[in-house]
Write a structure and sequence with these properties.
5-stranded parallel β-sheet; disordered C terminus; binds glutamine; binds zinc ion
């Protein structure tokens, strides 16, 4: 720390505290309510705009009041910041231009959500977070045009409050790297080839912001933390040489987050920009050595992201101060920040009144993280004595976590430590299991099944709400669920489906349902995080060691099985997905946490098997989305992820059939991992990709059974028998009939009963047509 104090003494500027962005909707979910009200016609455009402006102002006041020296502007959004960038650079798809011309707000929402006439932009995950952005569509004929109005207006609002404000823009390189070829454009068109056309537009926006009073502007380039080709790195160098070379511009801060910059660091360090914002948390901590290796940023500003912007845990302030102290020697000035926008965390841990105070002291949401940044900036500038009390309290909080029986359950730890290779392996290799399963199940070729859930009706949700509110008791709720299961089983029998499901009526959510029944998991009351647009989710918090309190699903699966002679498939959420859709603890490697979850699920699998369940599906829709951003991280991730799956499923007898399900069609890069799961059957999304998936599986020599989806459940459209049969014929070209399953793309929970009835009836009829057995389907009236 002595080095730090001398360095600060000789540097004129005190470190500034800042963040890259903040939760958007407000403490009472005001923005969500206003936008949804606008969509339904209950809220006028002016009222929506007023609510938004009010929220922005109160947020800036809050941040400045908390002690931030510089607040971000332009990170606010009615829907998505990538869509805002699309509007800013004028890359509006032709099909949305008329709507946008007619009304800016309605046109904006048309791009986000589509209208009866036009499709929206495609939506996909923002790097490895659970936030979704709208994918820009560009082609050779795209002509960009600057529209800086939103950025300028928001900057003016903040300056009007007499605050030091820093506009935050999505950078031009990342914008193009996130874009995809517009419909009608060659599939191999590379959006980055449009860079030279895009840069003047960025230069114009930067000039406008300068004119409006911006001293600094931040350009976010998170795509540079992924593996980039030499051509992409050269384009980055060109982009910042050009933007940096412009005469009339604010100072530029280029920000990256979510991982180390790697090869892009020397490129940006050489660029004529005044500052870099880097992530120093988790794997991105490698930025520290990388920065030293390039000789630091002499004469420039470093915004050090030492407070993790996407987990929910308190910072180790002492460790962060050490990092900051080292960084002081590497730049002209060092400011303190979160690693990324606080968009990815809930607003305020203090609002969680139901969480045990013992645990609450370990949690930091956006407000608490902002306070940590302020504390660290003060400590860095004025010396650690100025924050001695905070440091002592922080050490005590951290120590209470290490020593807590919640984070250290000796029985769980002993069991995880004793895991053997053999436990994660089925007792027989796949071909021999397949024979045993065939003999036991006696299924026809092209067996039909579904992915698990049936429609989650309003009545089911109402019953759950009534139970929570105490209006009905557990017995009444359970008989409601049983009635639903009866109906689901009866329908599937009538429809002629071969492997049935109970329909998951008891599950509010496929992760939360299990989280609520495992020790170590916490639920939040107000921990909303934006998933996309006005959709917010409350991910459970994986805070401690994981153990099962008792069977979690057996009751419902066994009840369903008691109603029918056909096999009922048990249905579990896999360990990787349990982690991916939660806030995971940061005090041990993910692989260790996954192993604990896997052991708990393994017990459930064992109980299901003991109850007579012949087919058990373990869903892993998140397996691919959690792939580390850099390829170098893939092998280690896939090793623990597939081990966790095999540990979950490896204990069953050969004749018990293990299914898995993943809802995406682009899985080429994890085919090896899918094989390593050693599941017997996999169902995948394929309806929208027209069975391409089946061909890919065949080409890769996938030796097992697979069910590429033949009913796109994302659409209300019901496919006809002939359409499904055509897909199945395509599937048959790739996979033999005894290895091809017939199922929808994903669960049916978001669909209505009438569509589901019709679609599944068509699906069975098509399977029978291809089998050549046209026995009539029982009338499902
Ligand atoms: N079994 C789950 C369901 O049918 C799977 C959902 C998913 O893949 N996301 O709802
Ligand atoms: Zn799915």
């Amino acid at each position: 720390m002595t080095k730090k104090s001398t360095a600060t003494a000789s540097t004129a500027a005190a470190p500034r505290a800042t963040v890259h962005g903040y939760p958007r909707q407000g403490g009472d979910r005001q923005l969500k309510k206003a936008i949804e009200g606008y969509w339904s016609g209950r809220v006028g455009a002016d009222a929506l705009r007023a609510t938004a402006a009010e929220l922005r102002a109160s947020r800036w006041r809050e941040l400045a009041g908390a002690g931030l020296d510089e607040v971000p502007t332009g990170d606010f959004s009615y829907y998505d910041h990538v869509l805002d960038a699309t509007v800013m650079v004028g890359a509006v798809p032709a099909r949305h231009r008329a709507a946008l011309r007619a009304d800016a707000l309605d046109g904006y929402f048309a791009m986000a959500r589509g209208t009866r006439e036009v499709a929206p932009l495609e939506m996909t995950k923002w790097f490895d977070t659970n936030y979704h952005y709208l994918v820009p569509e560009v082609g050779p004929s795209t002509r960009f045009a600057a529209d800086s109005s939103k950025q300028v207006a928001e900057l003016r609002e903040a300056l009007g409050l007499s605050l030091a404000a820093r506009p935050v823009l999505l950078g031009p390189v990342t914008y193009l790297l996130l874009a995809k070829p517009a419909p009608g454009t060659a599939e191999d068109f590379e959006p980055l080839t449009l860079l030279d056309r895009l840069l003047p537009v960025y230069a114009e926006v930067l000039a406008d912001l300068r004119a409006a009073g911006a001293e600094w502007v931040q350009l976010d380039e998170p795509a540079l933390v992924q593996d980039r080709t030499p051509a992409e790195l050269a384009a980055t160098a060109r982009a910042y040489a050009e933007l940096g070379g412009a005469a009339d511009r604010p100072r530029l801060l280029v920000a990256s987050y979510f991982d180390r910059l790697g090869e892009a660091l020397p490129v940006l360090a050489k660029a004529p920009v005044e500052g870099l914002a880097l992530d120093f948390t988790g794997p991105a901590a490698a930025n520290l050595d990388d920065l030293a290796a390039v000789g630091g940023l002499p004469g420039r500003r470093l915004v050090a992201g030492v407070v993790d912007g996407r987990n929910v845990w308190i910072n180790d302030l002492t460790a962060s101060l050490t990092t900051l102290g080292t960084l002081l020697g590497l730049a002209e000035r060092v400011d303190v920040a979160t690693s990324c926008s606080l968009l990815h965390v809930p607003l305020d841990a203090a609002a969680e009144r139901d969480i045990d105070p013992q645990i609450l002291r370990w949690l930091a949401f956006a407000r608490q993280k902002t306070a940590e940044v302020v504390t660290l900036a003060r400590g860095l500038g004025a010396g650690i004595d100025s924050i001695a009390a905070r440091l002592a309290a922080n050490r005590a909080d951290l120590a209470s976590r290490v020593g807590s029986p919640i984070t250290r359950d000796p029985a769980v730890r002993a069991r995880a430590a004793a895991v053997t290779e053999a436990q994660a392996r089925r007792s027989l290799p796949y071909p021999r299991r397949a024979l045993a399963q065939r003999a036991r199940l006696g299924l026809p070729p092209l067996p039909t099944t579904t992915i698990g859930s049936f429609p989650q009706t309003a009545e089911l949700r109402a019953a759950r709400a009534a139970l929570r509110a105490g209006r009905i008791d557990a017995a009444a709720y359970e008989s409601r669920i049983e009635a639903e299961i009866r109906e689901v089983i009866a329908f599937q029998e009538r429809a002629g489906i071969d492997v049935l499901v109970h329909g998951e009526p008891e599950r509010n959510d496929m992760v939360q349902y299990f989280a609520e029944q495992l020790t170590g998991y916490l639920a939040t009351r107000h921990g909303w995080v934006q998933s996309y647009g006005t959709r917010y989710v409350r991910p459970p918090v994986l805070a401690g060691d994981i153990a099962r309190r008792g069977p979690m699903t057996v009751r419902w699966t066994a009840f369903a099985q008691s109603l029918t002679d056909r096999p009922v498939k048990g249905m579990l959420t896999g360990p990787v997905t349990m982690l991916a859709w939660s806030f995971v603890r940061d005090d041990q490697p993910r692989g260790e946490t996954a192993r604990q979850v896997a052991l708990a699920l393994r017990d459930e699998v064992e109980d299901l098997e003991a109850a007579g369940t012949a087919v058990i599906q373990v869903d892993e829709p998140a397996l691919r989305e959690t792939l580390p951003l850099r390829a170098a991280g893939h092998p280690a991730y896939l090793a623990w992820a597939t081990e966790a799956f095999r540990l979950t499923t490896g204990g069953v007898r050969p004749e018990t059939q293990i299914h898995t399900h993943m809802c995406y069609a682009e899985f080429g890069d994890i085919l090896g991992a899918i094989e390593d799961l050693d599941a017997d059957v996999i169902s995948l999304e394929a309806a929208r990709s027209h069975m391409r998936v089946a061909g890919e599986l065949a080409t890769a020599g996938y030796p097992r059974e697979a069910g590429p989806g033949v009913y796109d459940i994302h659409s209300p459209r019901v496919p006809g028998v002939e359409e499904v049969a055509a897909l199945l014929r395509k599937g048959r070209e790739a996979l033999p009939a005894d290895r091809l399953w017939v199922n929808p793309d994903c669960g049916l929970k978001t669909r209505g009963w009438p569509e589901v009835r019709e679609a599944l009836t068509h699906l069975v009829a098509a399977a029978r047509e291809i089998r050549g057995t046209r026995e009539p389907t029982a009338d499902h009236g």
